[in-house]
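Task: sequence design from structure.
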């Protein structure tokens, strides 16, 4: 990590503005005044988020022989959360300020005696433990027997399906089960845009290993997960792995490290990698009465696998990549905003831009669009000056702009402009797909 990296508080507003102006993220229910701390992903945001999740799935599932996927239900019965410990322990200490009525998480206050909203001292109530799970009812009867919970993490879906996967997939420890999906937490202090929200997406993997191998696999996954962010272009000066101190560890964890990113407000968590021991499988085996262990025929021994869990936030990570990619440079006295996103994460890979909105150019431009759309996510835009359209594509991170001009009609060639260098090449239409494939692979 570079010594010189420091947070850039101004970046925060720039990203929030860009997100709204260009259609990455909108405030949820905005036309009704907005639903606080809840967000909708717009046309560009949904592509970025999908690309982040695809990149994770590719590296965690597709490119591995020892990890399989899962998509478990969001609604789950109380027994799951009783066994996991969430009903008893998944809570934050909540304090109310008797002066201004603001609510805060005690463990997140700089000074536990001073209210950061009104500045008054000694006005907090006694801390109360506030459970973060959302409860609802299954079916028409709102009685206690019908209570169910929205999952606060995707992880438990993997633990309760351990035996199902073991019996059907022919995988043996060491092996993993991966899942991407929505989770819900009734956070006391959501905030920092999409960093902490009540509804968010996680990308989690539970890796089941022989107990003697757990430390080795823990170190392997810490390194592998760091490499994933770096491979996707994250600035090495703004990402680090921080091992938890002993007093931060859950009672069942023998090691946890956070991948932290230098957000505009300082270092904060992107992902946690934990050595969870046999806690989860043992808890579910005890509560369900089912056997959740593994018989190793080669060594003639039965054991409860230990679990290494890399748990990342998809929505949080997408925002971190957006912040990391944002750049401004002065070109001919103008400031150009450019998202230097890795090609794999860029919402659109290519924009097809007919030089003018003339009937003469449209058929050829549409022909180019049609020839590329099968392979890539391609934008098509024919209004405004070409300079403005380039600027627009730079700002949303599109790696290549393909301009169809009047010469195209004669020479069957187009101008391809690269986002970061602004360099342009003239490429014949019959070579265009190969030219782009070479650069976007
Ligand atoms: N199964 C372990 C687990 O859920 P966690 O640290 O509570 O661990 C994992 O969550 C990741 O999920 C976090 O590192 C973060 O990226 C994301 N996450 C957690 N709570 C979030 C929230 N309220 N809003 C957005 N992302 C959140």
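Answer:
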């Amino acid at each position: 990590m570079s010594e010189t990296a420091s947070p850039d508080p101004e970046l925060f507003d720039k990203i929030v503005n860009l997100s709204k102006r260009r259609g990455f993220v909108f405030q949820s229910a905005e036309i009704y005044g907005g639903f606080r701390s809840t967000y909708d992903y717009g046309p560009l945001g949904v592509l970025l988020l999908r690309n982040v999740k695809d990149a994770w799935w590719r590296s965690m599932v597709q490119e591995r022989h020892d990890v399989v996927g899962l998509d478990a239900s969001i609604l789950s019965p109380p027994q799951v959360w009783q066994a996991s410990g969430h009903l008893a322990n998944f809570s934050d200490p909540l304090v109310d300020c008797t002066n201004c009525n603001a609510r805060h998480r005690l463990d997140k206050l700089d000074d536990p005696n001073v209210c950061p909203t009104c500045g008054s001292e000694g006005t907090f109530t006694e801390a109360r433990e506030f459970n973060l799970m959302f409860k609802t009812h299954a079916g028409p009867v709102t009685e206690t027997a019908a209570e169910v919970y929205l999952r606060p993490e995707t992880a438990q879906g993997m633990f309760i399906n351990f035996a199902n996967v073991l019996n059907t997939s022919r995988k043996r420890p060491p092996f993993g089960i991966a899942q991407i999906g929505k989770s819900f937490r009734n956070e006391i202090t959501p905030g920092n845009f999409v960093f902490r929200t009540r509804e968010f997406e996680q990308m989690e993997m539970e890796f089941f290993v022989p107990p003697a191998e757990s430390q080795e696999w823990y170190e392997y996954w810490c390194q592998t997960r760091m490499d994933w962010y770096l491979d996707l272009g994250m600035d090495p000066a703004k990402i680090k792995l921080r091992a938890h101190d002993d007093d931060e560890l859950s009672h069942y964890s023998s090691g946890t490290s956070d991948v932290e990113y230098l957000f505009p407000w300082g270092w904060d968590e992107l992902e946690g990698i934990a050595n969870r021991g046999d806690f989860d499988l043992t808890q579910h085996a005890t509560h369900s009465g089912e056997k959740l262990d593994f018989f190793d025929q080669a060594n003639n021994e039965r054991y409860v696998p230990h679990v290494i869990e890399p748990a990342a936030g998809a929505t949080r990570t997408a925002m971190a990549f957006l912040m990391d990619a944002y750049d401004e440079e002065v070109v001919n006295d103008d400031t150009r905003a450019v998202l230097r996103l890795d090609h794999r994460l860029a919402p659109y890979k290519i924009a097809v831009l007919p030089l003018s909105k003339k009937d003469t150019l449209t058929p050829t431009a549409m022909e180019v669009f049609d020839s590329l759309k099968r392979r890539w996510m391609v934008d098509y835009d024919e209004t405004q000056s070409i300079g403005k359209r380039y600027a627009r594509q730079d700002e949303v991170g599109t790696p290549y702009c393909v301009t169809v001009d009047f010469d195209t009609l004669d020479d069957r060639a187009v101008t391809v402009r690269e986002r970061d260098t602004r360099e342009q090449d003239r490429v014949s239409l019959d070579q265009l797909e190969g030219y782009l494939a070479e650069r976007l692979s």
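The pocket of glycyl-adenosine-5'-phosphate is lined by residues 153, 155, 185, 187, 196-197, 200, 202, 204, 269-272, 309, 311-313, 315-316 (CB under 6 Å).
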